[in-house]
Amino acid sequence: MARTRRPLIAGNWKMNGLKADAFALAKDLAAGVKQAGWSDRELLVCPPATLVAAIAEAAGGSGLLVGGQNCHAKASGAHTGDVSAEMLKDAGATHVIVGHSERRADCGETDSIVRAKAEAAWRAGLVPIVCIGETLSEREAGDTLSVLETQLKGSVPPGATAANLVVAYEPVWAIGTGKTPTVDEVSAAHAHIRKVLGGLTGDAAGVRLLYGGSVKGSNAAELLAAGDVDGALVGGASLHAAEFLAIAKAA
Ligand code: 13P
User: Fold this and answer.
1) Does the pTM of the predicted model rise above 0.85?
2) What are the residue boundaries of the structural domains of the chain, listed by start?
3) Per the CB 3.0–4.6 Å rule, which of 159, 177, 217, 226 could disulfide with 246?
4) Residue 95 annotated as catalytic
């Protein structure tokens, strides 16, 4: 059967990127994407908010998509230092990451906050990439699947479709550590996520599920071939054009 879920390879630059290096990286990625001419996969980079507009402009016409790393639930108002989904859209973004574990940990983001942010993304015409994932102690306690289920049910608003939602499974203990779950563990988590999504949307079979956590060129093919994996959310390796393009090639 033809694959219906087009793989999405997303780069989360996190709090990295000053103009000079970021432009050079975006230019190399845009050239790589243009040269490859991929129509069977999508590439997305999520730079810091300060660079979204400029990177969107630099990527223009290449097919490289640009997203935000977070948004506020409100469209505008007295929220000093925050960025709205509408502002990201206005800057050229197509996607926004919501509920990354670093924001859940650093900023106390709960499932209901993440859900409000996902709704804000929809209001602005962006696709939210909703992140969920267990901590090491939760995994060791055997609670992985129930943690994922709780996060998913709390973070995905009603109204999700294959077109307006991406979910990223990022085990907290695999982020930036060089450690990854086994392919079987990834498949089991993703199969469970899709099953739970089945209770939240009639479109669960079409929703793209990304794996994130220490993905690099050398392990991408194996991780991306795991059951129910439709792409990757890449941190560190997305800061190097050759490495990120190698991951995209593996998709
Ligand atoms: P690393 O790829 O650096 O482990 O980060 C993963 C991540 O958090 C992407 O959002």
Assistant:
1) yes
2) 8-13+84-250
3) 217
4) no
